[in-house]
Specification:
CATH superfamily of the largest domain: P-loop containing nucleotide triphosphate hydrolases
Helix content: 25-40%
Order of helices and strands: HEEEEEEEEEHEEHEEHHHEHEHEEH
Distance between the termini: 64 Å
Strand content: 35-45%
Largest sheet: 6 strands, mixed
Bound molecules: adenosine-5'-triphosphate, magnesium ion
Structural class: alpha/beta
CATH class of the largest domain: Alpha Beta
């Protein structure tokens, strides 16, 4: 029966819509949607298959489904061909379409950035050191603490979280900071953002900063998400009518439409990160500072953030400062990297060199 049905050319057709024809492994999904042009779409079944062009034995076969959409996550770098077969149930006729896909590790999509030491610096870290005073004794109660304070017996020891750090970041540069836990990266970012003042040395910044430093910094957990968007926006220097105008974009990017009236204390940490990232990147700041804020989002949101950061980097005038333990992300995003280890500056230079040396730590 099916044989006879295929003898006649089908009287219907479909369009194969793809979100893009290329993507980055681990960062992007490609989405496909077969849009039938006639009839009731419930009368159709969809069957997607993909093949690795370089190795046709590598086939991803999805069974026939009722939904017209298909998400393809690249298993690795390479060229693939996606085939979509749409079958009309009522007469068993099929139509087939194919689409080429190309996946890369991101290196070939990177803009070429040439470091020019003579260009204006937007961030200048000049021999910066940070010394924290840590109480050297433990007190069991506030009373004991006050007695020691009154008797001038409070003792502190100095802790050097950063020791003579020097680097400059140029306009439009994507600059990374790497180092093991407790090495001073967040402290460095806080000094640049003006949250902390350096104990020694000087840090100068030219331009507006959108800092994504600590989760929830700039938020009031008792207020609703909506109120917090206005509060945080005001802290970033946006006027109320500006936030009014962009409010929906912020909510859409965060994908939290139904949670706007909920107090932030009931949000999960990933949801807070979504709001924070959406506000900070709704316009192009001069300088975007990102400290691991992405890592609590789920993988889809991380991909979305990575794409947004990439757009900002590729605009060539937003300066991005990125701290992450995801060394692949740093390698894909950054032009230059500074490695700070236990407060000391170990290396400063092109991303590939510094990341290779840093990764050598574990060997
Ligand atoms: N306010 C503070 N008072 C005392 N010590 C502090 C303070 N803030 C940070 N430190 C110390 O400074 C050091 C550097 O901390 P920092 O948070 O900058 O590290 P980091 O490189 O961001 O680490 P991670 O990778 O774990 O985020 C740590 O030893 C930390 O305990
Ligand atoms: Mg940190």
């Amino acid at each position: 029966m099916a044989q006879n049905a295929q003898d006649k050319a089908p009287s219907w057709d479909f369009r194969l819509l793809a979100s893009a024809d290329h993507g980055i492994v681990g960062e992007d999904n490609l989405f496909f949607d077969a849009e039938v042009t006639q009839g009731d779409e419930r009368d159709y079944r969809y069957h997607y298959t993909w093949v690795n062009d370089a190795d046709p034995t590598e086939i991803g076969d999805d069974t026939e489904r009722e939904r017209s959409t298909f998400g393809f996550i690249a298993p690795h770098v390479g060229d693939f061909t996606l085939t979509c077969v749409v079958r009309r149930v009522s007469d068993d006729q099929t139509v087939t379409k194919t689409a080429p896909m190309h996946f890369t590790d991101g290196s070939e999509l990177r803009r070429t950035y040439v470091y020019d030491p003579n260009e204006e610096s937007v961030i200048k870290v000049d021999d910066v050191s940070m010394v924290f005073n840590i109480a050297s004794e433990q007190f069991n109660s506030l009373k004991e603490y006050f007695i020691a304070l009154m008797r001038h017996e409070l003792k502190f020891k100095e802790f050097r979280a950063l020791d003579h750090i020097n680097f400059e970041v140029k306009r439009g540069e994507a600059f990374g900071l790497v180092g093991t836990n407790g090495s001073g990266k967040s402290t460095m970012l806080k000094i640049i953002a003006g949250v902390l003042e350096a104990s020694e040395g000087k840090c100068t910044v030219n331009g507006t900063i959108a800092p994504l430093i600590e989760l929830g910094a700039g938020f009031d957990m008792e207020l609703t998400a909506k109120e917090n968007i206005y509060l945080n926006g005001a802290l970033l220097g946006y006027r109320k009518d500006f936030i009014d105008e962009h409010f929906q974009d912020i909510v859409d990017f965060a994908e939290l439409q139904d949670f706007m009236e909920m107090p932030l204390k009931n949000y999960s940490s990933g949801m807070v990160a979504r709001i924070a990232f959406s506000i900070a990147t709704i316009t192009e700041p001069d300088i975007l500072i990102v400290d691991e804020a992405l890592s609590v989002g789920d993988f889809l949101f991380q991909q979305k953030c990575a794409r947004r950061i990439r757009q900002l980097v590729e605009s060539n005038h937003v300066t991005v400062l990125l701290v992450s333990h995801d060394i692949n992300l740093v390698e894909r995003m950054c032009d230059r990297v500074c490695w700070i280890e236990k407060g000391h500056q170990r290396m400063l230079g092109p991303t590939a060199e510094v990341c290779a040396a840093y990764k050598g730590l574990g060997e």
